[in-house]
Each structure stands twice: as C-alpha cells, then as structure tokens.
C-alpha cells in the first residue's frame, strides 16, 4: 500500500514542461475542482433543483391539505357518530324506562285479570254448590212427597170403599169441570 501512495506522490514532483499539463497534486487541485463542479452544478442544476424542490414542496402541501381535509371529515364523522350515540342512548333509556313501565303495567293487568278470573271461578263454584244443594233438596222433597203420597194413597185405599171412592172421583171431576168454564 505504501508503494501505491508513493507512486502518486512522486508523480506530483515531475518537472513541468512549461506548457499545458495536468496537476496531479490532489491537495492543490481538489478545492479548485470541487468549486468548479459545484459552480457548474449550481449554474446548470439550479433550475432542475428548484423544479424538484418546488414539486416536492407542492406534493408536501397537497398531502398536508389532503390530510387536513381527511382530518376535518373524520372530525365531522366523529361528531355525527357521537350525536347518533347520544340519540341511541336516549332512545335506549326511553325504551328501558317505557319497557319497565310497560312490564309493570302488564304485570298489574295480569294480576287484575287473574284476580277477576279467580273471583269469577269462586262465584261459579258458589253458584254450582247452591244449584247442587237446591237440586239435592228438591230430590229429597220429591222423595218425601212421593213417600207421603204413597202413604196417603195406601191409607186412602185401605179406608175408602168403592162408594166413597166414586163420590171423590165425581167431586174431583166437578172441580175440574168448573175450572174449564
């Protein structure tokens, strides 16, 4: 490696011929070359560089505008969503309150209907019991009446002779005849 750098350094010590030639001294020529290159780049690349920077600036500004528009749209959507959420919460609360009221009302109606049904069934039961009692009493009366009638007929038949029987029948016919007129 030392030999390579030595060969470049030794090139710089060549005697100049007094005409046009290359200066191979890196330390002497480098700032000059750099200033020439920078000057050429600035002179010719200034327009291109300005166009590139302007295009980049416009893209950045456009992106910022788009981001602002999207941010504004997102804020509007968020506000709409919040308003809708408040509305839904209010409706849910109303449904909850109305639902509880409706449930309580239905519960009271059901209790009242059940109470009415029980009262009606109790009345029906009492009427049925009263009817059955009346029927049983009527049956007992009929049996007692039939037994009394049979006993009276038996007594009459044993006590009546045929002439008394004939007069009783005639009197009853007379009574029936008087009813027809």
From TrEMBL:
Topology relative to the membrane, per the entry? Answer: Single-pass membrane protein
Range of residues in the leader sequence? none
GO MF annotations in UniProt: proton-transporting ATP synthase activity, rotational mechanism
Q: What Pfam families does UniProt report for this protein, alphabetically?
A: ATP-synt_B
- List the subcellular locations: Membrane; Plastid, Chloroplast thylakoid membrane
So where does this one cross the membrane? 32-49
Query: Which InterPro entries does the record match to this protein?
Result: ATP_synth_b/b'su_bac/chlpt
Which spans of this chain does the record mark as coiled coil? 64-98
GO CC, sorted alphabetically, is: chloroplast thylakoid membrane; proton-transporting ATP synthase complex
Where's it mainly located? membrane
Q: Which UniProt keywords apply?
A: ATP synthesis, CF(0), Chloroplast, Coiled coil, Hydrogen ion transport, Ion transport, Membrane, Plastid, Thylakoid, Transmembrane, Transmembrane helix, Transport
How does the record describe its quaternary structure?
F-type ATPases have 2 components, F(1) - the catalytic core - and F(0) - the membrane proton channel. F(1) has five subunits: alpha(3), beta(3), gamma(1), delta(1), epsilon(1). F(0) has four main subunits: a(1), b(1), b'(1) and c(10-14). The alpha and beta chains form an alternating ring which encloses part of the gamma chain. F(1) is attached to F(0) by a central stalk formed by the gamma and epsilon chains, while a peripheral stalk is formed by the delta, b and b' chains.
Which purpose does this protein serve, as stated in its record? F(1)F(0) ATP synthase produces ATP from ADP in the presence of a proton or sodium gradient. F-type ATPases consist of two structural domains, F(1) containing the extramembraneous catalytic core and F(0) containing the membrane proton channel, linked together by a central stalk and a peripheral stalk. During catalysis, ATP synthesis in the catalytic domain of F(1) is coupled via a rotary mechanism of the central stalk subunits to proton translocation. Component of the F(0) channel, it forms part of the peripheral stalk, linking F(1) to F(0).
- Give the record's family classification: Belongs to the ATPase B chain family.
Look up the further comments and give them. In plastids the F-type ATPase is also known as CF(1)CF(0).
Please state what the protein is called: ATP synthase subunit b, chloroplastic
**Species annotation:** Wolffiella lingulata
Its taxonomic path starts at: Eukaryota, Viridiplantae, Streptophyta, Embryophyta, Tracheophyta
UniProt gene name: atpF
């Amino acid at each position: 490696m030392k030999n390579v750098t030595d060969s470049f350094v030794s090139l710089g010590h060549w005697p100049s011929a007094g005409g046009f030639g290359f200066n191979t001294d890196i330390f002497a020529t480098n700032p000059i070359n750099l200033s020439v290159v920078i000057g050429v780049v600035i002179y010719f690349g200034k327009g291109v560089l300005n166009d590139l920077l302007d295009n980049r600036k416009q893209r950045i500004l456009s992106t910022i505008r788009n981001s602002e528009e999207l941010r504004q749209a997102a804020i509007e959507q968020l506000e709409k969503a919040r308003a809708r959420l408040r509305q839904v919460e209010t409706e849910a609360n109303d449904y909850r309150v109305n639902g509880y009221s409706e449930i309580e009302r239905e519960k009271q109606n059901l209790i009242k209907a059940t109470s009415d049904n029980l009262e009606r069934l109790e009345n029906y039961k009492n009427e049925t019991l009263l009817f059955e009692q009346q029927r049983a009493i009527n049956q007992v009366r009929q049996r007692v009446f039939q037994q009394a009638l049979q006993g009276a007929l038996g007594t009459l038949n044993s006590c009546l002779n045929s002439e008394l029987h004939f007069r009783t029948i005639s009197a009853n016919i007379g009574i029936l005849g008087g009813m027809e007129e």
